[in-house]
Amino acid sequence: MSTQHKQTAHQIRLLSRKNHVTNTSGLAPGHLQANLLILPSKHSQDFQNLCHRNPVSCPLLGLTKIGNPHTISPSTCIQSEDFDLRTDCPKYRVYKNGTYLETVTDLLPLWTDDYVGFLIGCSFSFEDALSAAGLKPRHQVSGTMVAMYKTRIPVLASGIFKGATCVVSMRPYREQDVERVREVTRPYLATHGEPVDWGWEALQRLGIRDIERPDFGEKQLFEEGEVPVFWACGVTPQMAVMAAGDKIDGLVFAHEPGHMLLTDFTVKDLEMLGRPLYN
Amino acid sequence: MSTQHKQTAHQIRLLSRKNHVTNTSGLAPGHLQANLLILPSKHSQDFQNLCHRNPVSCPLLGLTKIGNPHTISPSTCIQSEDFDLRTDCPKYRVYKNGTYLETVTDLLPLWTDDYVGFLIGCSFSFEDALSAAGLKPRHQVSGTMVAMYKTRIPVLASGIFKGATCVVSMRPYREQDVERVREVTRPYLATHGEPVDWGWEALQRLGIRDIERPDFGEKQLFEEGEVPVFWACGVTPQMAVMAAGDKIDGLVFAHEPGHMLLTDFTVKDLEMLGRPLYN
Predict the structure, then answer these.
(1) Does residue A247 share a domain with residue A156?
(2) Which residue on chain B is closest to A278 by alpha carbon?
(3) Is the pLDDT of residue B154 over 90?
(4) DSSP state of B267
(5) Among candidates B183, B197, B194, which has minimal Cα distance to B149?
(6) Residues A98 and A221 in one domain
(7) Can you tell me the distance from the alpha carbon of A154 to that of A201, in angstroms, rounded to the nearest whole number?
(8) Residues of B in contact with A182 (CB under 8 A)
(9) Domain, as residue range, for A177
(10) Among A253, A262, A266, which residue's Cα sits nearest to residue A21?
């Protein structure tokens, strides 16, 4: 284990604030990592319903009250009093009228008291469980960014958010390991859970033209006998923002793909996350 | 309003038990109606996760304990002490190894103490809200069964349930009424919510070849200027059962499409259904 692996989620957030962190894959093992989407309050109900309707790609871990960048509900999600949603993610994307504008290191100059922030589970959260099972993700071995692809899986419409499709992350595994990979990631319902598809035939089903050319992140090398395994990805909400286009008033902010917000949720919180009211 | 419209959900269940009811569209207005899936307990966790991962097509309203056909959790879902899951739905489909076997009027001779029953929200639940808004569904006007179609929208895999696609129900509306139709049905998150697609172009996106030939129910007539509007449908779990095939040990039971179980949930319960733990 590197010293990095001993750092807490809080420490990673402080390092992110100082812009000393980029790719968060493998950081603060055992902690759930979050995608971000921050938008004007008038669109927050549509977006929250979008999460409810698409919990595999957009599993909601927590959200802020309007205009408050310091407190996430539920409070167990992020517990440090110095938390600031505008600085504690390594990098942020800025969208205007559904179009990507730029990537910035903090949102302090852009924030207004009308924004609502949503934290959405990230598949980095189950990567140490995969590693512990002898199934370490290739991008962690190679020190690259996970490969992500746009697909034709529909994101089911909610209000202004309609016509978007899912993004998936991809990790290569031997075909005979796929069922074990599914089992290991299945309990992580709140961070995308088990894969949505796998195998070389999945490329056609998902509408992925070229495995060598991911839409986000970096391409991954396949060893003999390996097949691509695809999980839903929390970059999907950014596709929904792009599909909504100029129906969105004002700027929207999101994390830069691969540059996640570390939460204080751990695998022990999974039982109560992504579950219904009764069980 | 016919006298039928004044009957309670409990009265409809008793009439269903006596096999005096077929199509339940329009019965006991204001009450949520449920699709059924009843399967051996060893598959219940996979199926429950399937519902969590696909809440638009498979919104879970309630479930039984193993082997108990009399009590649904949460208890507010069905409150009559004489309730029997094996008789109180008008008609049941029987599947063996994922293949449709027959339709029966009750499950008493087939039931064992190893079955778990799942109640899944039905779009009939929002039809009186549509009617109240002056948007009465065509099949209610014509006294036919709602038209249902298989699509290519993937049902996201859970354990043995993989490779299935969604079923949708269809109601014709004027193009200029679609946004209003979306608004009226949007709050019904627990009973499929707003449409998943609409317009004549949706046929190609959904993979529906012929609007005149629904896979379940009866074809609906279009008036000039009307377009098809599609909602996710609770027949979808039966597609998941068929896709699982012989991975399912034993018989599986479901409702006959259009022949729903009436619950005691009303529109007032929608706020707490289909929502996360925090809001």
Answers:
(1) no
(2) B74
(3) yes
(4) G
(5) B197
(6) no
(7) 19
(8) 157, 159
(9) 123-236
(10) A262
